[in-house]
Amino acid sequence: MSHDPATDGAKMDYAGTMTYADYLQLDAILNAQKPRSPDPNEWLFIIQHQTSELWMKLVLIELRAAVAAVAADDLPPAFKMLARVSRIFEQLVHAWDVLATMTPSEYSAIRPYLESSSGFQSWQYREIEYVLGNKNPALLEAHAHRADIHARVEQALAAPSLYDEALRLLDRRGFAIDPAVLARGARQSHAAANDSVVAAWAQVYRSPREHWELYELAEELVDLEDAFRQWRFRHVTTVERIIGFKRGTGGTSGVSYLRRMLDVVLFPELWKVRTDL
Fold it and tell me: Which end of the chain is more exposed for a tag (fewer CB within 10 A), N or C?
């Protein structure tokens, strides 16, 4: 048989063997879009949110592995995981760029078909916030109608956050961390900067060679929060661009609510120490 340059010798008979579509479950993925309106722009809305949920799934896989690594004093793998999460958040930022091509009139044509569905109900996003330390137990109620999901989000709320483990690590490495910080329940946010933690990070930054792993961890955490903030900010601007100040489909105040979320600081001492150094 003569060689066909178009196939470059690739196998062409895949009967009974694993294929690309089989491995990636493409039948399920590509048939998971079920537009409810006659407007073709709904495809963009659905696909953007579905792909974002897939990226969030990977964020959770990487974050949970990073939390376990920090808890085990195994920092080099955690650095790689946290760096990957920061890059995923960059990817999610650019996803908003695509959705921003939807005009207000285009969104208005599909909005009635969303009924009460809203990104506020994303349990993966809630888990990400909980793993990163923004613990608000009241938000669990949005998942009360699904016992399995409620249990999953509850588990994320009750588990130590990434920053909880970072603070415990500082304590194990000999820094004088306020016992009240270490005794704080995992279901509570570490919302306000603590002087003992600021002093510990300041020591790390002033002597990076002496505390190189902690120095690198601090910068990975700052990179992570920076990328997360950009994702949230791009969300706000995209929503305002498309719907203005209308209320969200899930009942929130929409842009006003999202703007308040921009004020949440996940790792307060790592930002305060920059002023103190």
Answer: N
